[in-house]
Write a structure and sequence with these properties.
The chain is of the alpha+beta class and 320 residues long. It has a single domain, classed as Uridine Diphospho-n-acetylenolpyruvylglucosamine Reductase, domain 3, CATH 3.30.465.10. The protein has twelve helices and eleven strands. The structure holds flavin-adenine dinucleotide and iron/sulfur cluster.
């Protein structure tokens, strides 16, 4: 690791000022310090944002819940009321890495974590995402890579929390150069669909401060399939939410993780459930629509069937 300056910000404004040209924000450090140790990123200044006042709390409300960016994944996992109101988010949090990681990892850092592609993470490989000319995964080791992409990079988004927050219609609040942006989860990642060097839509200096989730009487759930039971990312993950009118579904939202360079959603799949009873048939139909345009690579075709199964199982968890 190269030497760097370490500073602690006491307000969002000071965080931005301290960042200078080549700085990086530090939350729990699980992702950033790994990148620094591997010389993937070499910031001249690391700005600790974990002491920003008031941003480590979960505030419940009748209409909206507000989460500071520094709320840890363990706080989401442990909050007894959250488990009742947003069970899908609690389930997604409980599956992150391991308890040691969840104790330290922050909500903002989890959303902003970088690609886990092993070519990207190799200090001596300058792939497309790091400004090189080639995606080595396309004709190489692509077992963990995407089924859908909008650009030549096939590295998937791996944040559990992102897909769960997507189904809950969360708003991510970002400070950008004196302006406050309110981004949907899809907007937070849109740039990664278009641009191979992007991990998300954040620009240098953008600071996630809060996440808001509207209270909408949605049922929600999250399931994933992994190779290991802990200390690992999912192979594929699925989050779903829906409102119910009696036994009929309304406003279903399904997101898949680890299959695209954004949290992956297909509007037709959501719409196919509108007014339907939730059963094996309707859940399978939605799964087929979600995976219809999948483009597997040489080693990741297995993800298609896992994704379909997860969609069906996650949706059926929404049944009362
Ligand atoms: C073995 C292992 C298994 C894992 N398994 C999973 C898993 O199953 N699911 C999953 O979702 N994750 C998993 N992770 C990833 C882990 O959850 C993330 O690395 C962690 O959540 C990042 O949070 P952090 O607070 O440590 O972020 P940091 O490492 O501090 O920061 C991550 C990135 O976000 C930026 N950043 C931090 N805070 C802000 C902010 N407020 N505004 C803007 N940018 C910010 C940093 O500059 C950096 O680029 C795993 C990690 C490991 C090591
Ligand atoms: S998938 Fe993306 S991150 Fe991985 S080698 Fe290809 S361009 Fe690089």
């Amino acid at each position: 690791m190269n030497s760097f300056q370490y500073v602690t910000a006491t307000s969002p404004e000071s965080a931005h000022e301290l960042l200078a040209k080549n700085g990086r924000y530090l939350g729990g450090g699980i992702d950033l310090l790994g990148e620094m140790k591997d010389y993937i990123t070499e910031p001249s200044v690391v700005v600790n944002v974990k002491d920003l006042p008031g941003l480590d709390k979960i505030q419940s409300g009748d209409k909206v819940w507000t989460f500071g960016t520094n709320v840890t994944v363990a706080q989401l996992e442990d909050h007894p009321e959250l488990k009742k109101v947003f069970p899908g988010l609690q389930m997604a949090a409980a599956e992150v890495g391991s308890r040691q990681i969840r104790n330290v990892a922050t909500l903002g850092g989890n959303l902003a974590q970088h690609s886990r592609c092993w070519y990207y993470r190799h200090r001596d490989v300058k792939c497309l995402k790091r400004g090189g000319n080639t995606c080595y995964a396309r004709d190489g080791e692509n077992k963990y890579h995407s089924l859908f992409t909008g650009n030549p990079c096939i590295s998937p988004v791996v944040s559990n929390l992102a897909i769960s927050l997507g189904t809950l219609e969360a708003v991510v609040i970002v400070e950008r150069g004196g302006k406050t942006l309110r981004l949907s989860i899809s907007e937070l990642y849109q740039k990664a669909w278009e641009n191979p060097t992007a991990h998300n839509s954040l620009e240098p200096g953008d600071l996630i401060t809060k996440i808001e989730i509207p209270v909408q009487q949605r049922r929600s759930a999250y399931l994933q399939m992994s190779e290991k039971s802990m200390f690992d990312w999912a192979l594929v993950s699925c989050a779903a939410s829906a409102k119910f009118d009696g036994s009929k579904v309304s406003q279903a939202r399904i997101f898949l993780g680890q299959v695209a360079n954004v949290p992956f959603m297909v509007q037709e799949a959501n719409e196919s459930l509108e007014g339907a009873s939730l059963d094996e048939n309707s859940a399978n139909k939605a799964a087929d629509l979600l995976l219809e345009k999948a483009q597997p690579h040489s080693q990741n075709g297995y993800k298609v069937q896992i994704a379909k199964t997860l969609v069906r199982r996650t949706l059926l968890q929404l049944k009362a």
